[in-house]
Amino acid sequence: MMKAPFHVYSVLLLALAVSLTSCSQQNATTVLEGNAAELTYVAPGEYDEFYAFMSGGYSGQITAYGLPSGRLLKEIPVFSVYPENGYGFSEESKPMFNTSYGFVPWDDSHHIELSQTDGEFDGRWLFVNGNNTPRIARVDLTTFETVEILEIPDVAGLHCAPFITENSEYLVSGTRFSVPIPQADVPITSFKENFKGLINYVAVDQESGEMSLAFQIEMPGFNYDLARNGKGKSHGWSFLTTYNSEQAHTLLEVNASQKDKDLLAIIDWKKAEEYFKAGRGTERTTSYYHNQLDESSGIAASTEMTTTTILDPAELPDMVYFIPVPKSPHGCDIDPTGEYIVGNGKLSADMSIYSFDKLMATIEAKDFDGDINGIPILNYESGLHGILKKPGLGPLHTEFDGKGNAYTTFFISSEVVKWDVEKLEILDRQSTFYSPGHLTIPGGETKKPFGKYLVAMNKITKDRYLPTGPELAHSAQLFDITGDKMKLILDFPTKGEPHYAQAIPASMIQPNSKKFYAIEENTHPYASLGEGQAKVTREGNQVHVYMTAIRSHLAPDNIEGIQMGDEVYFHLTNLEQDWDVPHGFAVQGANNAELLVMPGQTKTLKWEPFRPGVFAFYCTDFCSALHQEMSGYVRVSPK
Ligand code: CUK
Ligand code: CUA
Quick one: average pLDDT of 519-524? Predict the structure, then answer.
């Protein structure tokens, strides 16, 4: 099984696994500039200049931070239930978690993508992937709420997602793990015959933001890792790094690191779209869920989808290409001009930078070195802009400042390196504490980066903060990149494991931020639009409590006539019409969670009485001086 010269790889692999955490705190202090406090200080009552949206990794959520202060503004629940506000517990939100695998209340969120118009952020929506149970979610940036979750069928591990095109036409994603497609009970040793990859194109409605699966491209059974879409001159093309072109299915750390080069997939998505629209795809039966929140009722609904269209590159020419990329690549990043594509290998000493013009010329000249399943492999040298020599160890991700500079994180050597994209010259390097994964620069993946700051999201925290036992918060580090040299100016702990983040000027979001929901627009079927509508109704063993909340009482506040065996639905409408006056609701022995209801909204908690007696309920949000009085009783009688 271990045909590879194990000793050779083991050194590199050990280095990758262990990483260098030798930079001491001493160094941190020496690289700190004297005016760091001034550069990051946001006075009480003042606002941050940027919102930074970070994925939560194994928390499954998104967090919004202010930059440069590093203050946590909000955790936005996406793929995981969130008892803090009842997301995933309220009847309205439960359908958001429906998948073809059942109710899945957790995921692993990796990559944030802000919506774009003409290659620049437009501040409308935020997309993020669920890596484990393949899904893509959309957050509405007027409410900071998850409004849509779309499952991606037949893939396994949606790490490579959801990368957006220049006008938010599509979100491209690729399967992390190849699997039998369609799923089948086959021996794992039949990997090479039976396991396949899929690259997925989800269309985004330009007006509503609504996602729909357009088509899937069937690919060889590699691992599809990360992608970016072209911009400007390269608009219409997608680039995806792949690893495990060895097609190993066991001990990947050795067996998927045998070849000196893996492959970068290059896709002409305009061509794919043409084929799709001309009906050249094959329809396949499948199952996946599309969950959407109706914003006027606040109720989510699921639709099961049953077919998908597959495009086969073996039958549809001039659509997919490969080009070799150095050993075990991770990030795939494109500079603001759309000309340079960085596809670096984690186990390679140098970084390969491709030129879009040269790639196109290579395709034009059919300068191919064979093919895989009918997909041409472009000549490596022909597509290359050049090599960045010995930039550091373990290059992962690159972003840009819009001034011709790239910034790359190096996991093994624990640093960020600034280099000139055109000249391929290293300009600066600064230590991070410790091994960085992604980095983000405001607008750093767009046509017009805002520059100014760089945030490194570090995988290892160690001694950066007061210890909290074995489990530590992950850490982010803020650098000022306005000068020739990067300056470390702030450390801040983060939630979950932020893999990627994007930052956007606050001015693009703040004016549109919704303050409350208009009660007259509430279309929830169980809403009480005034206290006069508060009531209790019964349909068989289902009891519906139409309840209202306004400072400082709940109505009705004495509920009798409930029997053991009943299902009680508390439909709480918050009648307030002012900013920042939520009311909460919890009932004793609640076997789920609470509700936190925003002004003008209705939310529902299902409660099944557990024994006869009189039980208290109360508002959970300190909403007024008489908040403690905001309570009531429910009486439960034997059947
Ligand atoms: S990431 Cu998902 S393993 Cu480098 Cu984009 Cu962290
Ligand atoms: Cu309403 Cu406390």
Answer: 98
